[in-house]
Amino acid sequence: MASTETATRTLIAGARLNRPASKRIYWAIVIVTVIVFSFVFLGPLYWMVSGGLKSGHEIAQIPPTLIPKHPELKNYSDAWAQLSLGRLILNTFYYAFGALAFQLVLGVGAAFAFSKLRPLLGNAILGLMLATLMIPSTVLIIPQYVTVIDLPIFHWNMLDSPWAIWLPAVTNAFNIFLLKRFFDSIPSDLLAAAAIDGAGPLRQLWSIILPMSRPILGVVSIFSVTAIWKDFLWPLLVEPSPTSRTVNVGLYAFSQGITQNVLVAGAVIAAVPTIVFFLIFQRNIMSGLTTGSLKG
Amino acid sequence: MAATTTVSTAPAPGRRAGSHQVSRRRAGLRRKVSNNLTGYLFMLGAVLCFAFFSWYPMVREFIMSFQRTKRGLTTWVGWDNYVRVWHDPAFATAWKNTAYFSLLALVFGYALPFLIAVLLNELRHGQGYLRALVYLPVMLPPASALFLFAYAYQPDNSGIFNFLLHSLHLPTSQWVQSTSMTMPSLVIASTWMNMGGAILIYLAALQNIPGELYEASELDGAGLLRRLWHVTIPQTRLILSLMFLLQVVATMQLFIEPLILAGGDGVEDHATSIVYLMYQHAFKEQDLNGAAALGVMLLVVLVGFSAVYTRLSPRED
Question: Quick one: which of B124, B109, B223, B211 has its CA closest to A33?
């Protein structure tokens, strides 16, 4: 994908690169970079896929074979069965999209209230939410765990239930902040006009705000799905039983007592959904990442 | 933008104190109350989630760290938990290991993404492909990526890293099974897995640098390195300093890398991290209170570090 001619000037001037000698050096650098990067970032993936095709004997062989001698797909089917990967992947999907739904509904509601309804003390509550960003997530894992096994007031044990992932996922202050900031940029006049036409707050949110917020909703959705998919320590604690584990945790938990080639095949299968997800949403993921980062 | 309808109904003192205005004022008040109630209703779900899973645990961590629960009986024990975890033989090691990992990750993993971003930003071809490449590992489930590294780190020459080193006539390594290479091995894996995010963030920052700055400095005779040093770095200073903070805080929470690559504690405790120690206390020794005390210590260290760092670091001005 070539970038455009009108690209802004960077360290090295475009005009300088048009000279024949510089041009040759430039292309040499491009080619070397592409080769080195492909080797560093795709090489390991090749190694993983080919490792999964090797027999138990071949995978421990010295020196290693670069191309599997007798590729066998059996490892992959073994991994699927022994690690119960179907189950793990399904669980992770269920957790990730459930968490997404809760985050969207409750997060959008809160952001709408902070941005447009602005009740008394709204900013103070938003401040308290943003303050949680200062606290690194793992340090609170113990009291959060204790809370989840016995929810105060309700005395509800959420262990091994999807709620233990869904509800804590809502406490992502950064997503609420992103939504709130985006809603701020939508003129309140639009809502006032709708209110005169008799639209209540819910109707204003649904018919005016949400249709205008597609880009930010996309960003937040991708963030939250990948966050749940990649999370490890929290699901390790709250989804301990073999039938409720996530891919990440399951791969780790089942790794003992499994031969290396089957384990590597399992790691490949576990990675497939995320790679497909990445290829589909590549553009949104990479532009969304910078939306989030440029908080000024 | 705060000027919603609620403000316009504020009472205008004096003037016409007729019954007409009283009723208007009352209607205004009612609308104000109902507006507020709607607002609270919309944020209720999120507020409850924060209350249960974020705000309350924050308070509870401190409370738990001064209590001891044994056979369902909870008592206040003062600083006992802190003293106990302090005397855990792995305590000092865990801090040392975690700090060492964090430091190594800075040495190898902090400048590298920035330099890669600078390089990619200069390329007028293949940038989309290269961006996708560097971000690909970030998308993998960490357990997948780490089992890949476990496979590549096989200590005899069946591992691909040793094979490559051997073919290049370089010394091979025992990787995670050698005490001195444990942490560097974890850092290599962690950097490979996580670098992509930083690269894309730096790229976005680099693209915001006005081209005139480069042009002006080139006219003044600044060479490539001086332009990098006097234009690129000052212009990205804020994001560089923010990423430094985020990286230190993230690497101090080291957990999954040692757990999967080194079985948690590694050879002779050379991989034990603070979070791993916390996990051990809580779930192997059933000592949630000790784990909470460790959590408070890590919290104080990290929040303290962030506070001091933001105080000292450059600001937008």
Answer: B124
Q: Does B228 touch chain A if contact means CB atoms closer than 8 Å?
A: yes
Contact B147 A251 (CB under 8 A): yes
**Could you tell me if A168 lies within 8 Å of chain B, comparing CB atoms?**
yes
Q: Which single residue is written with the structure tokens 């089942």?
A: A254
Q: How far are the Cα atoms of A235, B89, B226, B300, B315 from residue B233, in angstroms, in the given order?
A: 40, 44, 10, 31, 15
Tell me the three state secondary structure of residue B67. strand
Task: Looking at the complex, report in whole angstroms how far the Cα of residue B17 sits from the nearest Cα belonging to chain A.
Answer: 28
Cβ contact (<8 Å) for A119 and B249? no
Q: Which of A53, A147, A262, A45 is nearest to B139 (CA)?
A: A45
Averaged confidence pLDDT in chain B:
85
**pLDDT for the residue numbered B3:** 38
Question: Nearest CB to B45: which of A106, A137, A251?
Answer: A106
- Cβ distance B283 to A237 less than 8 Å, yes or no, reads yes
Neighbours of B29 (CB within 10 A): 13
Q: B45 to chain A: which residues are within 8 Å by CB?
A: 102, 105-106, 109-110, 170
CB A68 within 8 A of CB A50: yes
Q: What is the separation of C-alpha A225 from the centre of its chain, rounded to a whole number of angstroms? A: 5
Residue A234, pLDDT above cutoff 90: yes
A 10 A CB-CB count for B10 gives 10
pLDDT band per the 50, 70, 90 thresholds, residue A66? confident
Pairwise CA distance, residues A166 & A171, whole Å: 10
Give the burial class of B1: count Cβ atoms within 10 A of its Cβ; 0-12 exposed, 13-18 middle, 19 or more buried.
exposed
> How much of chain B exceeds pLDDT 90, in percent?
38
Question: Would you call B21 an interface residue with chain A, using a CB distance cutoff of 8 Å?
Answer: no
The token pair at B282 is: 């809580």
